[in-house]
Structure to design on (248 residues):
């Protein structure tokens, strides 16, 4: 997972994203107030969620390494600020600069996605967007959607090893070429996406969204593909260099 948390708070991001953010904020607030792990009942009270719902979200966050339980069936700790390889409060400055460079280099909308695990199958979650001079568009599926819906999701599906993902011919082709291009979730737009790696692990997908008509020009299409691949390489290099080496 990228060293990020979602940086979007609009009503269009969907109930799941808002509830997950609420749970994370509850943990952070109570930990700062008490200096201890946070019981489930306090998370439920702070968020207004039913205990069963809060528990389901917390267990999903435990599975990603964002939250941990020091003791089985015990209280929960937000792990953002403990070892350096855990998710950080937002994309690093280097990652943000690279995304901004992609946007200014092409004049198109640049987005960054991370895998999002909540439930049986992973999804893709927007963690940063650069619209440039364009007016931002609020669309639920831009923020959170199943992996098969568009190029960034397809890139993640091709790069991840997950029992719920079947690597078929299209995904094998994406693995071979190193990028995906096709219809975006916004009508009339296409997306070009490439995987971002943290060492051997798929950490995300950097994406460029542009008008469908623009991809009809081979020169424009190839220039945008190169820009996306360059951005993905820069982000992957940054994340890999800053991943602490594990010792046996």
């Amino acid at each position: 997972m990228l060293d990020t948390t979602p940086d979007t708070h609009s009503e269009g991001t969907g109930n799941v994203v808002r509830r997950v953010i609420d749970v994370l904020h509850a943990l952070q607030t109570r930990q700062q107030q008490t200096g201890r792990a946070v019981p489930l009942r306090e998370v439920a009270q702070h968020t207004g969620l039913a205990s069963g719902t809060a528990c389901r979200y917390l267990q999903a966050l435990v599975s990603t390494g964002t939250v941990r339980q020091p003791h089985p069936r015990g209280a929960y700790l937000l792990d953002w600020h403990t070892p350096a390889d855990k998710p950080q409060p937002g994309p690093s400055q280097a990652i943000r600069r690279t995304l901004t460079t992609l946007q200014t280099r092409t004049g198109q909308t640049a987005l960054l996605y991370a895998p999002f695990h909540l439930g049986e199958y992973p999804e893709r979650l927007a963690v940063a967007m650069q619209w440039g001079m364009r007016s931002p568009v609020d669309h639920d599926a831009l923020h959170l959607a199943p992996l098969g819906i568009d190029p960034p999701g397809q890139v993640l599906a091709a790069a991840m090893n997950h029992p719920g993902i079947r690597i078929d011919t299209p995904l094998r082709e994406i693995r071979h070429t190193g990028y995906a291009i096709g219809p975006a979730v916004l009508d009339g737009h296409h997306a070009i996406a490439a995987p971002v790696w943290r060492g051997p692990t798929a950490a995300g997908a950097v994406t460029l969204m542009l008008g469908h008509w623009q991809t009809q020009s081979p020169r424009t299409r190839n220039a945008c593909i190169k820009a996306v691949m360059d951005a993905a390489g820069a982000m992957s290099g940054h994340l890999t260099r800053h991943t602490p080496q594990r010792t046996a």
Remarks:
- The CA atoms of residues 44 and 51 lie 5 Å apart.
- Confidence is low (pLDDT under 50) at residues 3-13, 81-89.
- Strands lie at 67-68, 77-78, 109-116, 123-130, 144-146, 180-183, 189-198, 201-211.
